[in-house]
Amino acid sequence: MLDDLIYRLRSLFRREQVEHELDEELKFHFHCQMDEFLEAGMSRREALRQARLAFGGLDQIKEECRQARGVSALETTIRDTVYSLWGLCRTPVFSVVAVLTLALVTGALATSFNLSYGFFFRPLPVAQADEIVAVAATRRHGTERGFVSYPDYAHFRQHARTLKGLAAHYSTAPLFAVTAERAQEINGAVVSANFFPLLGIRPQLGRFFRANEDSVPGQHPVAVVGYSLWRDWFASSRDVLGRTLKLNGVEFTVIGVAPESFRGLSSSPNQVYIPTMMLRTGYRWCDAFTRDCTVLQMVGRLAEEGSLQEAQAEAASLLPAHWLEAEEGENSGVRVEYLHGLRPGPSESRLLVLLLLTAGLLLLAGCANLAGLFLTRGSARAGELSIRAWLGASRFRLVRQLVTESLLVALCGGAVGIVLSLGLTSVIRSNFYAVDAEGHPLFYDFTPDATVVSAVLTMSVLAGFVFGLLPAIRSSRIAPGEGPGRQDRSVTDRPALRTWLVSAQAAAAVALATVAAMLTSSAYAVMQGVHFDPSQVALMRLRPRLLQYPPQKAQPFLERAVARLEALPAVESVSLWGHPGGALGGPETRVWLPQWPAQRRQAISTDHGQIGPRFFQTLGIALLTGREFTSRDTPESMRVAIVNRSLADRLRIEGGVLGAPLRLDSGEYQVVGVVEDVPLQQPGESPRPKVYTPFWQNPELIDARLCVRLRGDPASMLSLLAREVNRADPEVPIAELMPMSTHLAGLFRPLRISSAFVAFTAVLSLLLSAVGLYGTLAFTVAGRGREIGIRMAVGANPRDMRAMVVSQGMKPLAAGIAAGAGVALAGIGVVRHLLVDPSSTDPTSFLAIAALLVTVTGLAACWLPAHRAASIDPALALRKP
Amino acid sequence: MDLPQGTLDLLILRILSLQRQHGWGIAQRIKQVSRQTLEVRQGSLYPALHRLERRGWIDAEWGTSKNNRRAKYYKLTPKGERQLAKGTEGWKEMTAAVAQILESP
After folding, report:
1. In whole angstroms, what is the distance from residue A54 CA to residue A671 CA?
2. Lowest CB count within 10 Å: A21, A257, A380, A453, which one?
3. What is the pLDDT of residue A836?
4. Taking Cα atoms as reference points, which of A229, A224, A227 lies closest to residue A274?
């Protein structure tokens, strides 16, 4: 074994000497042979001739000896690589185009891998992450995930035997945190005392919760702060232990700091943790320890690795009794599943399927184009290849050499693609996944993992084989007797496939560009507001409930806040809407008319917004008929309602809806106005019926969102607004203070991502189609050099040749554009649900733009081959054998 | 007559077990001993020599031939001797078996 290695290495590193020895050995044999012939009485000349004949191909024997020595595989690879590098450097345009094409394609692939990994697969930063499971309640026959109440959690924890432990957490607790220096709403988590030990996390500083600190409701106001809060609020000081932090009006003592690596179990990083016994402070909307107050999620650690099925079976047998008679929409089942990634919503799953599919298709298209490029290169190098074949290179060696070249390109492309994906991923992260629609920070870790990197490199190497092997086999097909002047006749034999490819790619580019343009303009339209005007509007959320304000204290505060804001010269108008229940959707209520016979069964399911005066004026929504609410609509006055156009149409009241009595779940109202539909739900959904009632007519409301129309840029005036509201009551937390456009950007993230992604794909496919066209034409020009030479010799001028090449390229392109238009129309059908106003969107102009784009890039791709054709020297072309 | 596959290695080992020899000499010996029946071509001989050398069955050294030329002499290594014994035995067994079948009535 060792001998063998030394032998091989000797052959490798002392190649010259070994070669020399081989030469000498064979020469000796040759001379012995000569001597024999001379002794037999031949003339010297004849002996020489006979010896040569007897010897056969000297180079071939040498090559076989080299192979027998076994070093040749390694040596050949090194030589092939060096030779390939040299060859690639000799044709820099080709190399750059090939590497870039592959880099763009693998970049898209790596980006979707990065996102998938971050979303779904990255292990939690905890000890033995593969044992951690989520024990999730399910609703509606397992189709939805639900939260559980504290008594339900206690029930599961008490009985679960297949789990080493079961912890509870409420990971998106809005906590209004106040220290001597700062006051801000932050995202916290309410966790059971066994949460940190179960995950195997060690504190950065201090300690985590003791079991006795989580056994009596409300007894132990202790808190663990997250690493970033410790850094930003307490300057990473050790003095933080024992300090007081006021959360939702209750004073907590800081006992520890969580490590930097752990940010909680959801994509909203937790900045502070409090024990479940303080849940009443962490959650203000229902009594935290009752059976109906479902806010917790459960996380467990399997007793034995891989015992997921057992845990699932056990959990299913432990369902609390009242789950068994659950009503629609209540918890009715349980599912145990591994916890990894950050499990975003279904829109991310759909997005990723789209991303991966497209990246795969792009990879295929890229391979096809690169195969074309390599074939072109092969035919341009036909002469070189046949010389090498003549000199004794076997066909296998030629193929191997050519494949090495494509593998080199593949590896470079893959590496550049990974670098590119770093940029793309960070752009996606900062544009779409930095904050949620409410402006809260999000944390997604998309840094590429070793698995992702190796997967991408493997894919590109595979791609290298795919796009390198076929052209290599074809280029190395050298018939015996074919001389160095050989031309690839297949050029004129079967151009059909390549022409088709050009057409198909042009079609794809046109279709993608059209769809991208439509989606982008739709996203733009949504951001501008459809039937309302979000520009110059600022939003803020006021939650006196976090401080347990009763309505009698909260409502006067809200009134004061609105009055103060209205008095500001920069403010045009102010309104508010009750929370829950937004301008954008809102909770459902049933609406029916008193005269309807089977009242409730026919009731219309409607969104319900509780709004202040001047709401429609502030948001720029058109009042079709009647009036807005005013300050005269009070709890004492007649109950009134405003309906939107869709609801008015659905009610179908003869003589108009104005003045009609309307029944809601909450009582009887009189319609005083009709407003325009605002398609603020996801685009494509038909506008939902909506009923508005006056905020001030409901004496129970405590929390509200304010909307403020400003004279000027809202972003610059946010702190001014906050100061004014603070003057109305310095205690009440102000949260989610942002321009409305920011809110819309978060709300329409799926549309924005889809359009950005399709636009990116369209650009890529445009580039790919240009590369494909270029490859085809260059191939043709290289193969038809002689023919072009003849044409020019008999009188065609360079301009004719240029025109010939351009028309050869543009014909399939034009066919592709026409086909692409058809595909685009079908494609628009697929994304129609993402368009704001599908019925009125006219694809013609977008199609025209896309066709123009493809034509221009196509012409650019034709230029170089056309130029080359025009500059062929007839004398040189004809002199070739 | 061409050699059946794999037998060339055995013949080389056998010839080298008598004395060290260069490539030309090996080819000549095979021709002589087989009374001109077997002829080894250079195209098979030299790759086979290099293969055997790689396996450590034979060793090479440079020397001077009868006609005063520098020649590469090969000789059997202990490992090669063992291989020769094993190969000879295997060959005998096989030929006996083949003969039995061919001569069976």
Report:
1. 111
2. A21
3. 65
4. A224
DSSP string, A821-881: HHHHHHHHHHHGGGSSSGGG--HHHHHHHHHHHHHHHHHHHHHHHHHHHHT--HHHHHH--
Lookup result for tokens 């779940």: A665
Contact with chain B for residue A440, Cβ under 8 A: no
Residue A483: strand, helix, or coil = coil
E strand map for A286-395: 297-302, 331-338
pTM over 0.90: no
**Closest to A205 measured CA to CA, from A181, A231, A178, A184:** A231
B69 has a chain A CB within 8 A of its CB: yes
How many CA atoms are closer than 13 Å to the CA of A229, on its beta-carbon side? 29
Probe site for chain A from B21, B26, B54, B65 (most A CB atoms < 10 A): B54
| Residue B70 half-sphere exposure toward CB, CA atoms < 13 A | 10
| DSSP secondary structure code for residue A603 in this structure | P
Beta carbon pairs, A and B, within 8 Å: 68
3-state helix, strand, coil in chain B (%, to 5): 60, 15, 25
Q: Of chain B residues 15-34, which have a CB less than 8 A from chain A?
A: 22-24, 27
**Paired tokens of A202:** 């060690």
User: Tell me, what amino acid is at A586?
Assistant: G
Q: How many CA atoms lie within 13 A of A157 on its CB side?
A: 21
Q: Which amino acid is at B32?
A: Q
Sign of CA dihedral A576, A582, A583, A587: negative
Encode pLDDT of A814-827 as tens digits.
998 998 888 888 87
Lowest mean pLDDT among A162-176, A315-329, A413-427, A777-791: A777-791
Tell me the C-alpha distance between A676 and A621, whole Å: 7
Which pLDDT score, from 0 to 100, does residue A9 have? 63
Pull the structure tokens for residue A741.
């456009």
Rounded to a whole number of angstroms, the CA Rg of chain B reads 15
Residue entry with tokens 């595909």: A823
Chain A partners of B48 at a C-beta cutoff of 8 Å?
68
Strand partners, A571: A710
Contact A29 B42 (CB under 8 A): yes
